[in-house]
## 1
Amino acid sequence: MKNILLTTTSLVMAAGVANAEVSWSGTATAGMARSGKVAGVTAGGTTVNLDSIILDVNVAVELADEYTLDLASGSTAAEIAAFIATHRAYAVAGAAGTANVATSHAKVVTALDAVSANLAALTSLDTAAVATGDFETYSEVNATVSGSVTTDTGVVISASMSVDAGTGYDFADDDGFDAAKTNGVALDNVSIDMGTMGKITIDQNAVTHLVDGDDDASADVLYTNTLGSLTFSGAMDLSTDVDDNAVKAAAAVITHSGGVASAASFTLTSAAVAAVAADVQWSAKVSMPVSGGTAYVAMDEEGGNAFGASTSLSGVGISFDSKLEALEEGLSMDRSNTVGLTYALGSTTLGATWNSIEDGDQWGISAAYAADGLTISASTDEGSDWSVSGSMALGGGASVVGGVNYTEDAYLGVSFAF
């Protein structure tokens, strides 16, 4: 980190400041990497809620068996679209035949086209699968410049700015490559430290809420203070508060009225609905030391709440967290309860977690090794989402880094801090 002491007559005259301190620091990374494959996703858990679709035109006997088609409830929009395409091609060909047969086929084409039109709203929301990408190079420099002044009353006012240049690669969050920067300068935050009266941080739309960081995207102001052994934090969103706009993702519903298939017999009863996070205007958190560890309680305006604690017992680290987000509280959904364990064996640390929500990823295990400049970490979970990464120190703050995971994300490069 570099520190520069600035003293200017204008600064002293304008704010009564004796001096201003400016510091800067950063990191640089470069190497080669690839983005892993991404499985296709059906938006909002979209399914078609039908016991069956019967396309029985009941006009020509010879067509009854051909178009009595059962499609099980729970079929995805993509599955139904493929089903329709196959049978529509057959019906179009049949419509060129003799009178009765052609009429029957034509009605089937009409019915299938009606279903296709209703499904268009669903398939447009689906995310297609993405294959593993090719290896590409990346190189990026991130720097942060911070400045602070101390007023005559002892209040410290600080501001920081970040500069980001190049194309980066983020393996830890499974984000892959980011775009090359055309304007990589951004204001980080401005803070006012009032000592015993607390600290205010202003960072528009970038302050994470204290129960669920996804709520309302972000807040604008964070207040923190230490009161004896208690630490208090409060986040506030200053934009217009819109209550009760939280929405859970919902499946689309297509119904068939029964009888002879026709355009009017298929109806998109309700379209797929994307999830909308709760509009939380404020959230607060209190943490405190307990029995050799820490505990916390958090809540927000929309009824979201969380609590937890962590400590160590006979060398085993134990943590417990329980959270009910604002959206889940409004829909009377179950709380998410997580238990975590860690244990150090010399240079190796073992970890395990378990969560009460049955989502196919209830448990996870991990191991990490660190000694003589070498670090290796590996993890997996119930859904086989495994990851292995490591680094080797080269001296002078530089390291060789690399990793691979279950999606075939992979990278190898160097990084250093300055």
Note: Confidence is low (pLDDT under 50) at residues 1-18, 43-70.
## 2
Amino acid sequence: MFDRVARRYDLANHVLSAGCDFWWRAQASEIVGSWCAPCVLDVATGSGDLALCLQRKLPQSKITAVDFSRRMVAIARRKGLRDVVVADALRLPFAAQSFDVVTVAFGLRNMRDWSGGLREMRRVLTSSGRLLILDFSLPRNALLRKTYGFYLHQILPLFCRLITSEKEAYEYLGTSIETFPNGSEMCRLIESNGFSRATAEPLTGGIVTIYTAAAGSIS
């Protein structure tokens, strides 16, 4: 699916988020930048937008990115991402404790095993490492939540078909967002898979949330 939409993936993201995706990634990169991490891994990097933000924000750091879609990886390389490899997030090709920070933007939700993905991210983090997750969530405000639900199921698939000619590839998106843990539920999921001190910061009325956590002991 991601191979099929790769060519128009960035355009779809920018249009469907009304450009908010630029700001969401900028907020995430500000947080990671404040950690001054020497080695950062961006998991499920897609076309590489977050990793590229981090590459610009942390020019002295080593930014590595992985994604399982070869076409997405090819686009990320053409955009200037220096170190990006094809790999499955559930089987990362890195030794334990290889990175100081792991990030994942709009990728954990698409993994077939959320807990497995989190455990694998924890495995490659140092004992003092940190995690940042940026993903869609549900607004707490009832009216906004209802409006957002209508957009996800009625408007978004139509726009996706016009932009990418792949309506079916995006039809799952609304359901995936509604069934994905968010807020305190996501924090509990993160902490149950080897992390500690998980926090949630909603953005844009709760349409997306930035989660951060510290590497805790592996049970």
Note: The chain has ten helices and seven strands.
## 3
Amino acid sequence: MADTVMVEIPVTPQAAEALCDPKRRERIGKLVSDMLRPRSPGEDSLAAIFAPIKNAARADGLTDEEIEAELATYNAKRRL
């Protein structure tokens, strides 16, 4: 990636271990950059990652409300 800078962010030990691989670190850096500064207004990398997951949940019969409720429960548990 052109015009990159190094930043320090706290991650879990498992994430730090995974980031030892330079190619993975570059891909993660690009993902973070794209999430924070999408190239176009309609582009959202995080939404693109979750879209197929959400579609699979819908195919299994879950509604959008149920999916959002599951995500909210998951997020609440992680904050404890």
Note: The longest helix spans residues 64-79.
## 4
Amino acid sequence: MDIKQEQDNPEESIPNVMPIEEIITEEPFKEIETAETAVKKDDKPEARSTPSSGVAPKPSDILKAGFSGGSENNSSSLQAPKPTEILTKAPDLVGKKAIIKRPKNKIATVFGVVFVLLVAAFVAFFFFFYRVKITINTSPAPDKVVLDGKDVKPGTFNLMPGKHTIEISKNGYITYTDSRIFKVDETVNLDFKFEPAKTATLLGEKGYLPAITKDGNYIVFVASNGQLFSKKISDVNAAPIPLSNNAFTNVTDLFISNNGQFALLKDIEALKVVEFAKTDVINQNIAKLPPSIDQISSVTWNATKSDYFPEENSEIIYDLKTDSGWRLYLANRAHSQADILATLDPDNFSSLYLDWSENDKQVLLTGGEAGIIDLTTREYSTISKDAKFIFGKWGPQGQYAALIDDLGNLYRVKDGKVEKTEFKTKPELISFTANNKLVIVSGARPIEVNFDTLTSIDYAEIKGLETAQKVAVAQGVIYFQDNIGIEFAPLAFSSYQQK
């Protein structure tokens, strides 16, 4: 069939189409027709005639009109628009009048307003009520207030709930410290009078180098006349008694044997071993170690006995600085036998500080990097180069060691691993009181540090402790060397300190 025949008989080419009434109802169709009519009325009503009956045309009528081209004389018949008309009218259909305006959703608006109000209320509560209020007003006025690590002026502070650290200090008085978790709406009024720092008792005027015996029962020191004196710690009123008849000049190192019968010391003459059981001045010095004393930086000895060293305090390790570097010597107490233990690179150490662990196998070295010599293999190994370490000390049984760098930072050593802590102190201001606990001094305040948890207890300041050069702690009493001599005081708290 050719195209002309198809146009003359459109019904033969039209497929079977389901009447539109069976697909949709009349009402939706009327709504579409009404909307279309409304748009056309706004344009040119004469452009298209509408059925006069108002009844929706059948699909067959629409298709017939489209294929036959319609009749110009029949105004009631539905004519399909020509392509040119569609293209011409298309712009009009997307104009301003074609925009469908939807009604505003009042419920959404209400919810939006409510949400904004809730947010505003939350913010107001957060800033004005969900706070910790801390007021600082001491008498006399503090020299320094540190809140969460920052210097602030006394006043009122509104802080977020959680952990906060407060430190209020004044020279000559006991520092107030508090570090804990503060709760919501908590109010803290720090309105108190400073307590004067604790006073210390003078043990030996111009005395120096306090040292504690291993059992913690006696304090030994060098008196102003060069003699060694001892005092029982548990007897507060006991007077110091002399241990040596000989006088030693400018002692720089002092070690007391575990049984308290002899001492190892270094003075301006030599390394000396002094036996207290001998009463005559000459024979008390049982040994003088090498004569080149000016080349020796440090000395240490074994505090315990083992398979390698069958007697405690029987072996001595000291250093000698040579042109080729540092040499470490291992000698017996009588210095009848000595050999080279190790040779160290001078680039790694500007000086040396030695400490022999109580586990009898390890010697700790500082004075540049930090390292350990294993006495079973006589091998040296570096444990840290992260800082310039100037001091190192083993704790009881060698479980922990403490290091101090040139900036005063305290480090913890365990199993050959070095960890920096938040604490600061100075060399020789460290005293182990247990395997895992030590007391350090910061300013005039003793601080007990737990090396297991790295938590601390702050004790009350002690007058004179801020100038301490060396400390020793035992039985809750701290002995220290300051500009006056050897002084001591119990570790105590103030009435306002957190215990």
Note: The chain has three domains: 3-97, 113-190, 201-490.
